Every structure is written in structure tokens, then in C-alpha cells.
Amino acid sequence: MILxxxxxxxxxxxxxxxxxxxxxxxxxxxxxxxxIRRINANGAAFFGRSAExxxxxxxxxxxxxxxxxxxxxxxxxxxxxxxxxxxxxxxxVRADGEIVWSRSRVSLLPTRSGPATSVIAVIADITDLKRxxxxxxxxxxxxxxxxxxxxxxxxxxLEARDLETSGHxxxxxxYSLQLGEALGLDAVMLTELKHGASLHDLGKxxxxxxxxxKPGRLDAAEWAxxxxxxxNGYEIASRIPTLPxxxxxxxxxxxxxxxxxxxxxxxxGTDIPLLARIFAVCDVYDALTSERPYKRAWSHQAxxxxxxxxxxxxxxxxxxxxxxxxxxxxSSLTG
Length: 335
What we know:
Layout: H1 16-22, E1 26-31, E2 36-39, H2 41-47, H3 51-54, H4 59-62, H5 68-80, E3 86-93, E4 99-108, E5 118-125, H6 127-162, H7 168-182, H8 187-198, H9 209-212, H10 220-237, H11 245-253, H12 274-288, H13 300-309, H14 317-325, H15 327-334
Antiparallel strand pairs: 1-2, 1-5, 3-4, 4-5
Helix pairs in contact: 7-8, 7-12, 8-11, 10-11, 11-12
């Protein structure tokens, strides 16, 4: 149904003051210097003060200190004509000290004749919404910390079974994050890289001790079995509902080689996911510089030389170059 448009003739009267006083949102008339000329009952209730107390005060007196610059900027934008409507979410401080949130809409208040001398601010109370958002953010951070702690704990537990040098998981995670930052990864990708690093060898849980802990070289059958750990780790980790796809890529593909001779999928070049390419360099560096039952630890320089020799063969050359640019930092971590 289309409602007719109602227009008022010059002889009609309408009590705009009544509309102002009884509007279902807070309404404030504010002069160009920020002084409050009028405020309705809903607005006064929002601030926890009487209209008489509020009238004549500067709006910045009621505003949370951290939001004063944004408040002044919004007012000036409307006054200058940069915008016809400024919308901002901001905090106010009530008379009892409680911090409340509003979504404020500020625009020029027309006059019957002459230029405008004030603005009208419409304020909607969004305090409950903001508090709910903050509670959800806190819960999300708590869940994220729980997830990361669980993943890291599992990764460290894997070290004990594999006879990895103590601290391997933490080191490769730290190297990967530094390298990822150097390569310009955003915060989301860095988190996914960290999760993948935590569980990169999860699949070794499926490898028999006779193979996993063998002190000598593996024969062809044993090596083929060992190579299944990347695929198996991916399959296990895929059952973790909150683990992102890029983290799974690290687990599955960190043994792929740039030249296509790696495993499990014999991917080559940029077909290998970027996070897996980054992690592969860090994992091999730490393996080379760590002592194992079957080998002595390489020096930092020898490991760096090996990474350089494998540019464009085992590793992405760009990733290796970024790692080598960081080697003074890496050296201090190992020392």
C-alpha cells in the first residue's frame, strides 16, 4: 500500500517543539562552538543529568576524553560544509561516571531565514550493543589463546616422541613469523602460519617407532613410509574445525620442493602454497643447526651456505633471500 504524502500549507501549524521533546532518541541542538543550546528528555536521560544542567555546557565536557578530537572534527566537517551528515560512534561519560556509547548523527539545523547557526545531533544509545561486542571479542581472544596453547602443546609433545632437539617447535615458529613479516604477510596469514608451524609434524604420530627413531639411514621402504607423515598429518589436522586452510597447507606441503621432486604431491614452484614455502626454509635451517642422534649440529654459516645453494632447487629463491637478509637475527636466536 502506498501512503499519501502529507504536506503542510502555510496556514497549517505543527508543534515541532512537541516533536523535539518527545522523540524516541536523544536530540541536541549544538552551536558551532560546541555549546548545547537545547536537549530533549531522552537525551538528558542518556547522560544521566537534567536538561537544565546540560544546557549551556560544551558537548566536549560530556564526551569521553579519547573521543573529543573525533567529536570536534565531526562538528567542524558539518559546519564547513565538507559533509551534510557526520555519523560517528563515540563514548560519553554520565554524571555517575559510567561510560556509555552512542551512534551520533550530526547535521546542520536549518532556519526559516538566514544561514544556520547550529547543528542537530541525533544520538542513539548503543551501549548494550558495544558491551556485547566487547564480551564477544574477549571470548574470541580467550578461545584463540586456548587453541594456540593446545596446538603448541601438541607440537612440543611431538618433539619428545621424535627425539627432536628441545625447542624445535618454538624456534621454527619464531623464525617463520619473522620471515613472514619480512615478506609482508598480514596478521591473519601470520596467525595461520603460526598454527601450521605448531603442528607441522603431526603426522609423525602415525609413523612406527622402528622407523621414526631409527638412528641410521632409512631404506627405501622406510623412507616411503616416513614420507606419508605429511599427508597423514594433514588428514588428522583437517578434523580440527577451527584450523584454517592455510595452516593445513603448511602441514601437508612443507616437504614439497621448488623443483617438483618433493612430497606428498610433487608440487613445483608457486604451485606450492606460500606459507609452506616460508616454513620449509625455517624448518630445514633449524634441522641443520640442531644436533640429532644421527648427526652433529651444523654451524650457522654452513646452514646458510646450504640454503643459498638450494635457491631455486629445493626452495623458493625469494624466500631464501629474505631469510638470508634476516640471518643476523636468526643467529642471535640460535646463540
